[in-house]
Amino acid sequence: MKQIKVTCWLLLLSLCVPSLSRAEVKLPNVFTDHMVLQRNLENPVWGWDDPGTKVTVKIGDQSHSAEADQDGRWQVKLSPLPAGGPHKLTVAGSSDKTISDVLVGEVWVCSGQSNMAWQVSNANDADLERLTANYPEIRLITVPNRASQEDETNFDGEWKVCSPETVNDFSAVGYFFGRQIHQTLNVPVGLIDNAWGGSAAEAWVKRDVMNNDKRFAELVENWENTEANYDAEAVNKNFQDQLAKWKEAVKAAKAEGKPQPPQPRAPRNPLTGNHRPGNLYGGCLHPIIGYGIKGAIWYQGESNANRAYQYRDLFALMIQHWRAEWNQGDFPFYWVSLADFRREAEAPGESDWAELREAQTMTLALPNTGEAIIIDLGEADDIHPRNKQDVAMRLARLALKQ
Question: Got the DSSP string for 317-334?
C-alpha cells in the first residue's frame, strides 16, 4: 500500500513539474495587438526566453533571429517598412506568439506633467471630441504612473484602437496632435501617453546621470539627505495624531455650530514620488526606451519654475539623455512653452515662470528641437488651460515641417 502511495505521488509530481517549468517566449506590453511600428526605421523588437533559446521574429516577408542571452533577453531589428498594414508579427521561441493588426506609420511619445496628462474628457468641447474620435488608424497606449529607482522592464497596458470608447482618458494634447499628423500625412499614428502630473524634469533622468553631473551636485546632495533621514513611520504617526485632533475639533465645531476646520492632508512619501531624481525614468520611461519612434512632444516646466535658472542645464541634459538611451539619433523633440498664468502684475518684477520660458527657449540650441509658444492661450485663474486643441496644433506644425 505504501509503495502504491509513493508511486502515485511521483506520478503526480511528474505531471506537475513540466507545467511549472515550461519555458515561454515573452514580450513587453509595448508589443501587443493594434500596435504601430515606426515607418522607414529599423524597429527593435525584444523580449525574454530561456537563455540560449533561438527566437525568430517574422513580419511580412521578413524573418530575423536572435539568441536569448544569459539573462534571457533577446532582441532583433526589423528592416524598415513603409506606412501601411495591417500586418501580423509572429515570435517563435520556446513558445509561439502572434501580434495581430499591426500598423506602420508615425509613433510619438507624449510626456511631461499634468498639462500633457490632461485628458480629452476635460478639454474644450470634450463631448464632441469624444463622439467624433473614430480613427481606426490612430492607436493609443498609456504607461501607468510608477516610481522606481530600478530600471523596470515592463508595465501594465496595451495598445488600443482610437474610438469614442478609448479616447476619453487619453492625453488631450497627445490625441489632438496625433489626429492632425494622421489627417495631414494620411498614415497610421501611434501615440504613447507617458506623462505624470506634477512631475519634475529630474525625475525623468536616470539617477546615475544626475549623480555624475557636477552641475546638479547640490540637488543630488539634498536628495541623498532626504533618502537617509526620511522616517515614513514617524511621519505617518504624526499625521495620525493630527487626524485625531482634527476629529475632536470637528466634534467641538458641530456642537458649537461653528464651521468645521479643514482636514489635514495625508503626507506624501518623497521617496516614491514624482520629484525624486530617476524615479520616473526607471518606472515609466525605461520600459519603452528603444521602441521605434518618430519623436517626442513634451509639456512640462511648472514644477521646475522655482529653479528656473537650473532648467537651462537640466532640460537640455534630459533631451540629450533620452536620445542617447533610445539610440535612434537626434529624433525630433518638441515642447510647449509655459502658458500665461496668474493675474497681471501691477508693476514690473521678477517672474520665475518667465525665467523658465527663457530656459526652454535657450534649449532650442539643441538640434532637431522646436517650441510651441502658447502665452496667448493661458488662463489667469487656472494652471490647466482647457484649450488643448490649439496647443496640439502648434506642436503639429513643428512636426509637419520636417
Answer: HHHHHHHHHHTS-S--EE
Confidence at residue 378, expressed as pLDDT on a 0 to 100 scale: 66
CATH of 36-212+277-342+349-400, one of 3.40.50.10610, 3.90.226.10, 2.60.40.10, 3.40.50.1110: 3.40.50.1110
Domain(s) of CATH 3.40.50.1110: residues in the chain = 36-212+277-342+349-400
Percent of the chain with pLDDT over 90: 84
User: For residue 298, which of 109, 162, 157, 101 has the smallest C-alpha distance?
Assistant: 109
For 190, phi then psi, to 5°, come to -110, 130
What DSSP assignment string belongs to 224-242? HHHHHH--HHHHHHHHHHH
| Among the listed residues 302, 269, 333, 266, the one whose alpha carbon sits nearest the alpha carbon of residue 113 | 302
* 239 class by beta-carbon count within 10 Å (0-12 exposed, 13-18 middle, 19+ buried): middle
34 in Cβ contact with 161 (< 8 Å):
yes
Q: How far apart are CA 384 and CA 391, in angstroms?
A: 12
Which band of pLDDT confidence, cut at 50, 70 and 90, is reported for residue 6? very low
- Distance (Å, rounded) from C-alpha 69 to C-alpha 183? 42
Q: Does residue 357 carry a pLDDT above 60?
A: yes
Q: State residue 3's pLDDT score.
A: 54
Q: Tell me the H-state helices in 333-383.
A: 352-362
Using DSSP, state whether 213 is helix, strand or coil: coil
Q: Which three cell numbers stand for residue 295?
A: 519623436
Largest CA distance in the chain: 97
Cell numbers 493588426: residue: 101
Which pLDDT score, from 0 to 100, does residue 19 have? 40
Axis-axis angle for helices 172-185, 388-400 (nearest 10) = 40
Name 188's Cβ contacts closer than 8 Å, sequence gap at least 6: 36, 83, 84, 85, 103, 104, 105, 106, 137, 138, 139, 182
Q: How many CB atoms are located within 10 Å of the residue 326 CB?
A: 19
Coil, helix or strand for 55?
Answer: strand
How does pLDDT run across 147-195, given as a tens digit for each residue? 999 999 999 999 999 999 999 999 999 999 999 999 999 999 999 999 9
Give me 85's grid cell.
Answer: 498594414
Which residue is associated with the grid cell 488662463?
Answer: 379
pLDDT in tens, 65-101: 999 999 999 999 999 999 999 999 999 999 999 999 9
